[in-house]
Amino acid sequence: MMDFKRILIVFFWVFGVVNIFLTVQLIRANTETSRADTAVSVLTEMANDNIKFTNPSTVSSMGSYLSGQVNSNYLQSQMNLIDGKKKFDSATGTLSVTYEQPQKFGTTQTTLKRSISKYLKNEAKVLSGTQYRFDKQFSSMTKPDSHGHYSLVYSQKMTARQVIMGTAGQIRFTFDKQNRLVRYTQTYISNVEVLRDAVEVISGADALKDLYQYNELPNNSTVKWTKLAYSALITVKADTIFVPTWVVAVVDANGDVSILRVNAIDGSVLK
């Protein structure tokens, strides 16, 4: 009799656990469906307000909070290992390298990028260069200076898939009119660590929905591009906390470009 009672207790316990699990999964599924439906509805409203955009992804992905040190002494302590005239700004953590004789790289941006890829692998030219990736979005926003020099931007990889979007963790190569490298600046984020397990982050469609509902997207504007990357959130002593971020470039009716950021974990707009 006792064995039968014990079996009943175990059965009801397992039944209860499974029921709770299925209920949680159902709530989560309904929440995700509701979120996706809301995003689609808001995107329709945006189109009605003449806000132009390419259909963003409605697929969620995973991301984690990270920590790292922005103005560490790594670049300063290692800069004598590389060629060129070096200068380090301790206030911003920026290493500047200039060349008395411009370096020949190629005649087109395609050949330039191919040459830079090799350059980044040479520790006598760039410190930890393999940790940086060509940033198409930021490079497209650079304009030639008064001398006709232009820049290509490379951003530091924070994870296997995402880079940092900002002045920290960035290399900016500057070329003259003959596509020769005249200088570059570099910032570096050291000791990058994962602070917590990965969680689900919002989709690109959700990010546009949040920007629209917070009145960050003006009528008659164009969303030029969106990108999931990392942004600095807060600095605690020597460490900076980085969060997965949807970075959105918006062009208003006057042609002015704004960079907007949405925390991809909680959907808040970052200022």
Write up this protein.
By secondary structure, this protein is an alpha+beta fold. The protein has 2 domains: 2-65 and 193-270, Lipocalin (Beta Barrel), CATH 2.40.128; 71-188, TATA-Binding Protein (2-Layer Sandwich), CATH 3.30.310.160. It is built from 5 helices and 14 strands. The chain has helices spanning 2-48, 74-78, 109-120, 136-141, 204-213; strands spanning 61-63, 66-69, 85-89, 94-104, 132-134, 150-156, 170-175, 180-186, 190-194, 199-201, 222-236, 239-251, 257-263, 269-270. Strands 2, 9, 11, 12, 13 and 14 form a 6-stranded antiparallel sheet that branches. Strands 3-4-8-7-6-5 form a 6-stranded antiparallel sheet. A hairpin with a 4-residue loop joins strand 7 (170-175) and strand 8. Helix 1 packs across helix 5 (204-213). The longest helix has 47 residues, at 2-48. It is globular. The chain starts with a helix and ends with a strand. Residues 34-265 form the Regulatory protein YycH-like domain. This is Regulatory protein YycI of two-component signal transduction system YycFG. It holds the Pfam family YycI.
Helical coverage, percent range: 25-40%
How does the major sheet shape up?
A: 6 strands, antiparallel
How do the SSEs run, as a string of H and E?
HEEHEEHEHEEEEEHEEEE
Strand content: 25-35%
E-strand count: 14
Q: Whole-number average pLDDT?
A: 85
Shape: globular
What oligomeric assembly is this protein in? Answer: single chain
Uncertain stretches of 5 or more adjacent residues: 10-18, 21-33
